[in-house]
Amino acid sequence: MSKYVFTRIGYNCFNEQLKRVQEHLARATKEKGEAGAGQDAWHDEGHKISLVEEMMWSQRLGCLQEILSDCKIIDPQEQNETISIGNGVVIEYTDGTIKRFYIEGYVAEPSLNIVSLSSPLGRLLIGARVGDSRTFILGNIRKVFLVKEIILPSEAICLLE
After folding, report:
1. Could you give the angle at the alpha carbon of 135 between the alpha carbons of 133 and 140, nearest 5°?
2. Are residues 86 and 136 in the same domain?
3. pLDDT tens digit sequence for 74-98
4. Do 109 and 34 belong together in one domain?
5. What is the DSSP letter of 82?
6. Same domain, yes or no: 60 and 115
7. 90 and 156 co-located in one domain
8. Are residues 10 and 67 in the same domain?
9. How far out from the chain centre does Cα 122 lie?
10. What are phi and psi for residue 51, nearest 5 degrees?
C-alpha cells in the first residue's frame, strides 16, 4: 500500500512544487560555484551561504523524490454524503467565520484552501457529514465548527483558484 495518496490535482500541484525545488537547487549550485570561483572558497561568506542553501534544497528534493516513489494517484468518488479526498467542504466556526477547503491526500506546500488528510483538521473532517460539529484543538487554541456543505469533487476544483 502506498504511503502517500494524491488526487490528480494534488499530484500536479506536487510536481509543480518539485520543479520549483529543482530550480532553487540549480540556482543555489550555480551561485555556490560563482561565489567560490577564483577565491579561497572556504573563507568566502557568499560561498558558505550558497553551500548551505544548496544542501537545504538538495535535502528537500530528496524528500519530495521519496514521496514520489511511494505515492498513489486516485480518482475521487463523485459523492457528497461524507467528506473524503477530493471533496470540497464549507465549515462555519461558532464565531460565524466561514471557511472553504479542498480535501487532498498529501500537501507538499501549505495552502489556505487545501487541507491534507493527514493534518489535524483533515483528520477531523474525514467521514463527517453535513450538520456534524467538530472541535479543533491546536495547542491552546480551541475552535468548534459545523460542517455546512460538502461539495462534489467535480465542483470542488473551483476552491483551488
Report:
1. 160
2. yes
3. 999 999 999 999 999 999 999 999 9
4. no
5. S
6. no
7. yes
8. yes
9. 12
10. -65, -45
Query: How far apart (Å, rounded) are the C-alpha atoms in residues 107 and 11?
Result: 9
The answer to whether 125 and 89 have CB atoms below 8 angstroms apart is yes
Could you tell me the residue range of the domain that residue 19 belongs to?
4-73
Q: What are the φ and ψ backbone dihedral angles of 121, each rounded to 5 degrees?
A: -65, -40
Question: What sections of the chain are H helices per DSSP?
Answer: 8-36, 45-69, 120-125, 153-156
Q: Specify the residue for cell string 500537501.
A: 107
Q: Based on the domain organization, do 86 and 153 belong to the same domain?
A: yes
Rounded to the nearest 5 degrees, what angle is found at the Cα of 5, between the Cα atoms of 124 and 159? Answer: 65
Q: How far apart are CA 52 and CA 7, in angstroms?
A: 34
Structural domain tally of the chain?
2
* 24 and 12 both lie in a single domain: yes
From the centroid of its chain, how far is CA 98?
21
Residue 44 CB neighbours (<10 A): 16
User: What pLDDT score does 43 carry?
Assistant: 54
Q: What is the CATH number of the domain that holds 92?
A: 3.10.50.30
On whether both 117 and 89 belong to a single domain, the answer is yes
- Cα torsion angle, 157, 126, 80, 92, sign: negative
3-state DSSP assignment of residue 115: strand
Summarised one tens digit per residue, pLDDT across range 93-148 is 999 999 999 999 988 787 888 999 989 899 999 999 999 999 988 889 899 999 99
